Prior knowledge:
The structure holds 2 protein chains of 2 kinds. By secondary structure, chain A is mainly alpha-helical. Chain A folds into 2 domains: about 35 residues; about 220 residues, MetI-like (MetI-like fold, Orthogonal Bundle). Chain A is built from 12 helices and no strands. In chain A, α3 crosses α11 and α5 crosses α7. Chain A is globular. In chain A, about 35% of the residues are buried. The model of chain A has no long low-confidence stretch (mean pLDDT about 90). By secondary structure, chain B is α+β, with helices and mostly antiparallel strands. Helix content of chain B is about 20%, strand content about 35%. Chain B has a 6-stranded mixed sheet, with helices on both faces. In chain B, strands 2-1-4-5-6 form a 5-stranded antiparallel sheet, with helices on one face. The model of chain B has no long low-confidence stretch (mean pLDDT about 90). At the A-B interface, α8 and α9 of A face β7 of B.
Amino acid sequence: MRHGRLLRLTAAAITGIAAAVLLTFVGLPLLAIFLRVPLSTLVAQLHSPVARDALLISLKTSLTALAFIVVVGTPVAHLLGTKKFPGRSVLVTLFELPLVLPPVVAGIGLFVAFGRFGLLGASLQRFGIRLPFTWVAVVMAQAFVAMPFYVRQAVAAFASIDPQLVGASRTLGAGPSKTFLRVAVPLARQSLSAGAALAWARALGEFGATALFAGSLQGITQTLPLAIYSAFDSADLTACLAMSALLVAVSFGVLITVKILLRSRAWV
Amino acid sequence: MTDPHLDVELHHRLGRIDLDVRLAVGRETLALIGPSGVGKSSVLRAIAGLLKPKRGRIVCDGRPLLDTQRRVDLPPEERRVGLVFQDGALFPHLSVAQNIAYGLRPRSGGRRERRARVAEILERFAIAPLADSRPTRISGGERQRVAIARAVATSPDVLLLDEPLSALDTVTKSHVAAELSRILTGLRLPTILVSHDFGDVAGLAERVAVMDAGRIVQTGTTAELLRAPASAFVAAFVGTNYFLGEARRAADTTVIDLDEGGRVVSDDAAVGRVAVVVQPWHVAIGDPAVASPDANALIGPITSVAPRGGTLRVAVASTPAITVDVAADAPVVAGLTVGAVVAATWPPALTRLVPPA
């Protein structure tokens, strides 16, 4: 008996210490960003031209990337979630790869595919299209790495729709596209929004692929993460902290939104 | 049978069973019954266009919906076949009224006409008070009514109902059955109703088709199935007693030596292989010692007593085993305990002889 009690106490103590270590490890860096300089200084710093440009570029590119992901990803996710066909799991795996692929490698890939001397780059150039080091390149880098966050969620959402509802819609006279728009999308709405929020947050934080494929040109391709790195490089810690704090706040907001969206899935 | 409005011929491989079905349905309700997993629902899905059979032909009012030989295969939305799913399959994100409006074509008339049509349907199916409710907030019986209303709102040429009663509790079931009977009579559409319970649909359908392992083994009215089941399977399914035996004439009666042992007498004339059909409600239960010598009698212990509405269904493990329906208020009920040895008796006049399977 005494022995068992001692064991239980030890286990509880170890769990407690582990929790404290993890909390410090994750919480302290986040807290430190806000504590190093007064909050008013952080807010003032966000008005600097560098920060403002970066914020605008980040918003413009990440929202464009998100629009691209949603428009292209939704029908593809619907196909992957509702149809069985040969090669389906290969496709799913391929679309999930950017989740684990180092972003820098994604950047290299984009560069040798769409860059000046890339597979498609030469043909694009013939039409006068040059992608690298433009804001479109930033969008491409962000869309590449953020896409799986949306597509995964969307595939799962479409797959979980009761096939009888789809059948009911069809027998009531609605063709496949009306059924998709009026039954599948509304039923998947919460999951799709959650996936979109996650993908947007990932796009907003994109660094590696962007740096490689789009560079860091202030006012053109320099997004917030790139501006942070650049400010850090030039030892402007306050500017770094201001932009970082903004990203922490946005990330926190996105995560809360996702949790609320996924919890309110029951129809009332 | 009236002129067939719906003609169905289907061949399909369904897991381990071969679906091989021929059906002709007039302006009537046909119940397609059978145990689970024999392919009943697949027949409905194929008619609605949600399942493409390997081979087949479906013609509705002269309009081919499917003809695999001529490569005709209309998509579900062009078939004008209303399908009511077992649990209703109402859209959970739409209100009851929106569910009903879903199938109304936007081109047919303006917004006002559509609204009038929805109101008319809500009124006709007595679901107007539920118009703004979510399907998740209404009862199972109400959901079923809304699902039928939604299918009927589109003015289909054919109505298919998949297990409309099986998800409901006993009280709701009798309500919905009565209502369904009224609705179906009013519609006069070719209707196929799928069920795994003969008792549920016996009163709803003009004809009943019994299905086993992908095939229809017998079609007939409820009375015909009870009077002359084509096989032991059908008899068991419709809940009647069915014994195979060898008949010979003796004086002006027929004596049948049953395959399982025992001998019964019938007023029907027959010689050779026959099936003996005895309705459970024609059989009486009594003390083996006082059984009348003129009656047929099977003696054995009671194995179960199950209440069914106003009657008790009693299973007797005689040779062969027999099922007996006893009025729940009959004096004999007091002695009906499992294990008690009883005589199940019935007169030769109520011993039907039919051709065996």
